[in-house]
TrEMBL record:
Domain of life, source organism: Eukaryota
PROSITE patterns with a match to the protein in the record: RAB, RAS
Cited PANTHER family: RAS, DI-RAS, AND RHEB FAMILY MEMBERS OF SMALL GTPASE SUPERFAMILY (PTHR24070)
Molecular function terms, GO-annotated: GTP binding; GTPase activity
Entry similarity comment: Belongs to the small GTPase superfamily. Rab family.
Protein's GO biological process: signal transduction
GO cellular component: membrane
Protein name: Small monomeric GTPase
Organism of origin: Paramoeba aestuarina
Keywords, comma-separated and alphabetical: GTP-binding, Nucleotide-binding
Pfam family, one: Ras
Length: 210
């Protein structure tokens, strides 16, 4: 009986946290090298358009109201510059974001290596604060030019404690899936944080926790 009571209390607490999370913005930071398709992914998600050419020096914020699992959510996305511009702004967004979308092009091994470096940089900036991560292999429509295998991508994501997805901003394949999955992970980690330290440890397979 006591166990059932505790479970009911935990469920009530989780619902309160989820309600709070659903009513607030989800702040997502998109990281990755120039020319991996970060801006194209963001624009595809926010407006379902594909823009092949985009100014790589621009850093901008996009917002989209979208239902995730039937619950409305305002997703705020920072499309970061892939160059060394805006470093201080980028670092601040990493610190304050709930989740990270780390993007590389599956046609570029160097962008894959830099994606792993970006994750470690985020760990340093977060300083122990839990955060969710999706590792995104973009340009799946250019499979004939592939330099990074799906197996390598999945292995890297596992080492990060991140989810993994291959996308195509050109076709729209799995773009919504990537962003919506990150929202789910953000909701989950927020609920788990309210449940206590032991529950938080169990989240390490789905969320990146330092």
């Amino acid at each position: 009986e006591e166990t059932n009571k505790q479970q009911q209390q935990q469920q009530q607490q989780r619902k309160k946290v989820e309600k709070k999370m659903f009513s607030n913005n989800q702040k997502i930071c998109v990281l990755g090298d120039c020319a991996v398709g970060k801006s194209s992914l963001v624009i595809r998600f926010c407006s379902n358009d594909f823009i092949p050419c985009y100014d790589p020096t621009i850093e901008d914020v996009y917002r989209k109201q979208t239902p995730v699992d039937g619950v409305p959510c305002l997703v705020e996305v920072l499309d970061t510059a892939g160059s060394n511009s805006f470093i201080s702004q980028k670092d601040e967004w990493i610190r304050t974001s709930e989740g990270l979308l780390i993007v590389y092009s599956l046609t570029s091994r160097s962008s894959f290596e830099h994606a792993k470096e970006a994750f470690h940089r985020a760990q340093e900036l977060k300083k122990g604060v839990p955060f969710s991560t999706i590792l995104v292999a973009n340009k799946s429509d250019l499979d004939e030019q592939r330099e990074v295998s799906s197996r390598e991508g999945k292995k890297a994501a596992k080492q990060m404690g991140a989810s993994f997805v291959e996308t195509s901003a050109l076709s729209g394949q799995k773009v919504d899936d990537a962003f919506c999955e990150l929202v789910r992970l953000n909701r989950k980690i927020s609920a788990v944080m309210m449940s206590g330290e032991e529950s938080l440890k169990k989240c390490t397979k789905k969320c990146s926790i330092l």
